[in-house]
Amino acid sequence: MHEQVKLPNGMVDLAIDLTALRHNFLQLRQFCGPGVKIMAVIKADAYGHGLLPAGRTLSAAGADCFGVAYLSEGLSLRRAGISVPILLLMGILPEEAAAAVAADLDVALFRPDIAQVLAAQARLLNKKARVHVKIDTGMGRLGLLPAQVWPFLEQLAGLPELELAGLISHFAAADWADQSYTQQQLEGFQELVRQVRARGWGAPASHIANSAAILDVHHSHLDMVRAGIMLYGSPPSLETPPPVELRPVMSLRTQVIQVKDVPAGASISYSRTYITPGPVRLAVLPVGYCNGYNRLLSNQGWVLIKGQPAPIRGRVCMNLMMVEVTDIPGVREGDVVTLLGEDGDRRLTADDLAAWAGTISYEVHCLLGNSNFRRYIE
Ligand SMILES: Cc1ncc(COP(=O)(O)O)c(C=O)c1O
Asked: Whose CA is closest to atom 13 on ligand 1?
């Protein structure tokens, strides 16, 4: 008798395993030790895993604070009852200052005009606004260049409504085995932190380590680490295997909706990029790029059916794609297909999909997670 497992979510089942998320956090906690605070980075809807479910799970597991990109994310977390510090990593727009202060959100700060409006709003609300001054030590992205830090701090000294809660920087290449640039950034950052403290600014929390640095550059942990990708179970570096056991949190499954035998010379999908070299059995799957399954995966990589790899044939369409099952006996309509996750003793990881599409696991998570209905497993 042919067993067919029903997918719980219709044609496309994107599952988020909150137990794995908790496991990864606890691995991180143990790895860092009790002296280092952990900021869980849950921007971009927790890298596609869902802001609130991830926030609640990580909060219960003991995250000291959260990092998000947008004011709206911070406000959602506050409305959900998350009371630990939340840092708006990209800062705010001037018009967002009132809401940020009212909700006690920490703000990454690098613009004098924002410092002014934030202080003004704090004064109005009779509160202190907590800020983390963002320093560009070599990422070449957001933040003050080291030479701009002192004039900026002088300005802050005249704004008593602002509390300097942190100094923040970001690594550009902590995922490389060659750590020389990372080391250079770290030394530059630490020297600034030392000077800021020596000049009477108290002890703002210093933080620079992302997942790759957390796992590979122990002395970069400083007061706090900011963990993103490792919480979601993907190794942050392709060059250095993680020293802790990370469990993938996201999986994606679908089912075969048609099996068809086509002759040699048949043209498969848009633009005729695959012509069958001989008689071929295909399975048609109801997943495509509207589900975040990248069109760059056309003719690249495979899915798993009955624990066996089934290669992608032709272009990935908006809602459909074709895989070859000639070598997998007995495939039928309704069979479960794993696009991300494990089947038998084989597993497809976000890094596999990323390598085929020429991108990184971060993007795979964001695209899949934010394009599909998420089913949560506790
Ligand atoms: C400022 C900042 N800190 C920390 C992180 C977390 O990085 P990762 O996901 O590599 O741990 C990110 C993610 O992009 C970030 O932008």
From this structure: 228
What gap in Å lies between CA 253 and CA 240, rounded to an integer? Answer: 29
Residue with CA nearest ligand 1 atom 6: 228
Q: Residues with catalytic annotation? A: 43, 270
- Ligand 1 binding pocket (C-beta < 6 A) is 41, 67, 89, 170, 210-212, 226-230, 236
Q: Which atom of ligand 1 is nearest to the CA of 108?
A: 1
Are residues 274 and 265 in contact, defined by beta-carbon separation less than 8 angstroms?
no
The three-state DSSP-derived secondary structure of 273-338 is CEECCCCEEEEEECCCHHHCCCHHHCCCCEEEECCEEEEEECCCCCCCEEEECCCCCCCCCCCEEE
Rg (CA), the chain: 24
Residue bearing the CA closest to ligand 1, atom 14: 228
Which of 210, 214, 216, 364 maximizes ligand 1 atoms within 8 Å of its Cβ, making it the mutation to test the pocket?
210
Q: Which residues fall within 8 angstroms of residue 351, CB to CB, at 6 or more apart?
A: 234, 235, 238, 361
| Distance from Cα 358 to the centre of ligand 1, integer Å | 20
Distance from Cα 316 to the centre of ligand 1, integer Å: 30
Q: What is the pLDDT along the chain (378 residues), one digit of tens a residue?
A: 445 666 777 899 999 999 999 999 999 999 999 999 999 999 999 999 999 999 999 999 999 999 999 999 999 999 999 999 999 999 999 999 999 999 999 999 999 999 999 999 999 999 999 999 999 999 999 999 999 999 999 999 999 999 999 999 999 999 999 999 999 999 999 999 999 999 999 999 999 999 999 999 999 999 999 999 999 999 999 999 999 999 999 999 999 999 999 999 999 999 999 999 999 999 999 999 999 999 999 999 999 999 999 999 999 999 999 999 999 999 999 999 999 999 999 999 999 999 999 999 999 999 999 999 999 999
pTM of the model: 0.96
Q: How many angstroms separate the CA atoms of 47 and 66, rounded?
A: 13
Which amino acid would we find at residue 27? Answer: Q
Which numbered atom of ligand 1 lies nearest the CA of 168? 1
The ligand 1 atom nearest the CA atom of 174: 10
Beta-sheet pairing, 12-17 with 250-255: antiparallel
Output the furthest CA–CA distance in the chain (Å, rounded). 78
